[in-house]
Amino acid sequence: MLSFRKTFAWLTILCSSTISLFGGPTCLPAQVPDFCSNINHVGAACGMFRFVGVERAKPFVAQRIVHSVGHNLDGTSNTVNWVEIIARDGQGRIRFEQQGLFKPADWRDAGPMSNHDIEKTMLPSDTSGPLVTIFDCPNRKSTVLQPEQQTAYVMQTCYSFPPEENNNQPYSYQITRLLGAKLPSDVSVEDLGNREIEGIMAHGVRTIGLGTEKDGEWNGKPVRIMEKWMSDELGITVLYVQSDLKAHSENTSRFTNIKRTEPDASLFEVPPNYKITLTQETVETGHKQKPL
């Protein structure tokens, strides 16, 4: 994900008197913009979600809670608690509502936190405060809302580059395929079977990484353990636990308060009183939008 952030670290156009290359303002009224980008940022982002799948006919609303504990060389520890509300409708549109600050307190522990790093592509670098990110992956569109500023940043990909879909395999194929794969000698995989978590059936797999000679006394001993519990019936990673035994750190991500219901359609739209801002690459590298 770090390379994704570096690759797509673009500036955005802010609401001002700036004039776009097309001769019009980049700040638009609350309506769907008719420009699109030749760069497939949205398709790339939709193919990189770690905790929720782009699936139709499996609507839900849930809370995802992240807890991260890390230890520094000086003996102090860092604890980060982070919450977001996730909703997916029957069309496969996904909405992430981040609770609290945009950036986690300790960015080193951000791995299990963000499902979506496209905000760093679409927003100014000094962005803070709560955010709502909406992905319409089937239509190659992403929208980021800043409720406090009542501003919406919109990115639309021009061409039909669909997100990755695991070749029609079930959602848990991401982990079950490891069970029969040839792995390095210092990595082992254990099938944990099926289990009900938060009222949802999920399949679990545990991956264990052993230390090597460079790890000194940890050579040949477990140093990294990761568990993923993935639900095919809902298309989400219900529980994720990553432990670094050598560094004495642990990251967990858990879905709670899962409601298998169709979210209100208004959750996936830009509120009428918001100003819409097009990202710079949408204007500079794109053109008038073709019919989808």
- The end-to-end distance, rounded to whole angstroms, is 29 Å
Give the overall shape: globular
The profile of the biggest β sheet is: 13 strands, mixed
What's the helical proportion of residues? under 10%
* SSE class: mainly beta
Tally of DSSP β-strands: 15
Q: What value does the average pLDDT take?
A: 78
Tell me the Rg in angstroms. 20 Å
The number of domains is 2
Report on this structure.
This protein has helices at 2-7, 41-46, 119-122, 173-176, 280-284; strands at residues 27-28, 35-36, 60-71, 77-88, 94-99, 132-136, 141-146, 151-156, 187-197, 200-210, 222-231, 236-244, 249-259, 275-278, 287-288. It has 292 residues and is mostly beta strands. The strands form two sheets. It has a 13-stranded mixed sheet with strand order 1-14-8-7-6-5-4-3-13-12-11-10-9. A two-stranded antiparallel ribbon has the order 2-15.
What is the strand and helix layout of this fold?
Blueprint: H1 2-7, E1 27-28, E2 35-36, H2 41-46, E3 60-71, E4 77-88, E5 94-99, H3 119-122, E6 132-136, E7 141-146, E8 151-156, H4 173-176, E9 187-197, E10 200-210, E11 222-231, E12 236-244, E13 249-259, E14 275-278, H5 280-284, E15 287-288
Parallel strand pairs: 8-14
Antiparallel strand pairs: 1-14, 2-15, 3-4, 3-13, 4-5, 5-6, 6-7, 7-8, 9-10, 10-11, 11-12, 12-13
